[in-house]
DNA sequence: CGAATTTCGAAACGCGACGTATAGTATGAT
DNA sequence: ATCATACTATACGTCGCGTTTCGAAATTCG
């Protein structure tokens, strides 16, 4: 399971992701600035064991059903050690999660916004369909009862992903492919929100091909197709599987 | 606070919303069918007290921070009584919530889908912006760790609302205002998902006027405006508040 | 080297909520 | 009167929380 491989964060921001304040100041280049580190140093072994155990558990059950006690047991670590560095299990989980996912967010630039956006949405769908998608849902859930966590999750996870789409959008506006009056944030909400909605509510499966349909709506509108782009015509043929028109 | 007024459900489906199986069968017209009701009948007073207490608490704090013990105390009721009729606090909360919200879902029919959809979205926004919106977020959160609850919530709350929008959409297709190749479910996800996303993540405020922008995108597309509908032109003037174009 | 400092694992703590069980009472049908 | 069921109240054992205490380990400083 690729997802489980623990990939250390680039900046090696190891300490106190939790409270937002970094306790041991770090040089962006090397390790920790050896000024006020006196006693026994933090055990990297324990840290990694905690993170690994948490990631493992996150693939097995919802965050709510994971306990600090279980993480500590599985990691072979004292509970107090975890509480020393993270304020709650949600923070441990988010920290662990970010280390596996916070790498490169591609922003394709093919010359056509339409194609770029489609690729972006497709990548997003693939991500949401993976185990990581369900874990993300756990974090959104947690955010409903913990405002501090919500803010951290928003900044560290959602925003970067949202902006990756936003960059593509902006390029489209600059190139004149997207009308400059369009509400940027709303478009980002339409794209990401619909996927997250489906992911969290589960009324219909996420599918990669939704990217095509979405782009088609964004650039063709719901109206009767008069323009008839190549893509629109292609979609037409694919469409006869009888799931629609169940009303009246 | 209007929201707190307890409005009894039409069908008076009182018993075992919980397990999905209705224990005491009810005539759709009158009260309960007097066949296998032998002992002491269920106390409607207690039931109402439980529901009222739960609704009150739901306006004060997240579902996670509400305990069965607190509900029982506030309702002046034994804990066992609650567990007798509902399997967990989430079910109590949902049941209570549905009694206040499960009334009429208007599906405006003005002759123009565009206008109908805008009105529908507007109503949806108003609902999400009310206290009920945040409570709904609690249920979506709960659904992430309880699949049975998720299914009940989907059927009893989300689906009806979704379908209210769907009916409008279908009318638009029938009248030829919406292309029949458009993916109905995806459109519903775009509308509802984006709002729920904003509600639950809180990166931007929900606003009634988003309805206009949304409809404008759906029927105009993101493309450079060549058609220039009346509404599009109106939006243009409104647009100079400088919040956009923060990139480069 | 030795003292000071800090972290570590393990264990125990008090707290609060869970979901169940028991006891005694209340309310109806038969 | 008897039976069946629901009610309140309370107690129970279990679990997870977040904190505290302990002695041992690891590192810096004098």
Order of helices and strands of chain A: HHHHHHHHHH
Largest interface: A-B, 69 and 67 residues
End-to-end distance of chain A, in Å?
46 Å
Q: Share of helix among residues of chain A?
A: 55-70%
Principal-axes geometry of chain A comes out as elongated
In words, what does this structure look like?
The structure is a homodimer of 248-residue chains. With 248 residues, chain A is an all-alpha fold. Helix content of chain A is 57%, strand content 0%. Chain A has helices at residues 44-60, 68-75, 79-85, 89-101, 113-129, 131-143, 147-174, 184-201, 210-220, 230-238. The longest helix of chain A is centred in the middle third of the chain and has 28 residues, at 147-174. At the A-B interface, helix 6, helix 7, helix 8, helix 9 and helix 10 of A face helix 6, helix 7, helix 8, helix 9 and helix 10 of B. Chain A binds a DNA duplex (30 and 30 nucleotides) through helix 2 and helix 3.
């Amino acid at each position: 399971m690729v997802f489980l491989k623990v990939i250390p964060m680039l900046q090696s921001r190891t300490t106190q992701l939790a409270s937002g304040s970094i306790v041991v100041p770090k040089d962006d280049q090397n390790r920790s600035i050896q000024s006020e580190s006196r006693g026994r140093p933090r055990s990297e072994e324990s840290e990694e064991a905690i993170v690994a155990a948490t990631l493992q558990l996150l693939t097995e059950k919802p965050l709510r059903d994971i306990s600090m006690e279980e993480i500590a047991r599985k990691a072979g670590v004292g509970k107090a050690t975890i509480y020393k560095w993270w304020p709650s299990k949600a923070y441990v989980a988010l920290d662990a999660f970010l280390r596996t996912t916070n790498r490169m967010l591609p922003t394709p630039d093919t010359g056509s916004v339409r194609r770029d956006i489609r690729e972006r949405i497709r990548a997003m769908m693939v991500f949401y369909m993976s185990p990581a998608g369900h874990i993300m849902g756990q974090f959104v859930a947690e955010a409903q009862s913990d405002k501090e966590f919500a803010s951290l999750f928003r900044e560290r996870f959602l925003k970067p992903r949202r902006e990756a789409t936003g960059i593509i959008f902006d390029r489209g506006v600059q190139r004149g492919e997207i009308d400059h009056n369009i509400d940027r944030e709303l478009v980002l909400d339409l794209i990401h929100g619909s996927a997250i909605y489906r992911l969290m509510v589960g009324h219909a499966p996420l599918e990669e091909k939704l990217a095509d349909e979405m782009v088609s709506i964004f650039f063709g509108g719901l109206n009767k197709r008069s323009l008839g782009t190549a893509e629109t015509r292609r979609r037409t043929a694919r469409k006869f599987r009888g799931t629609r028109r169940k009303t009246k």
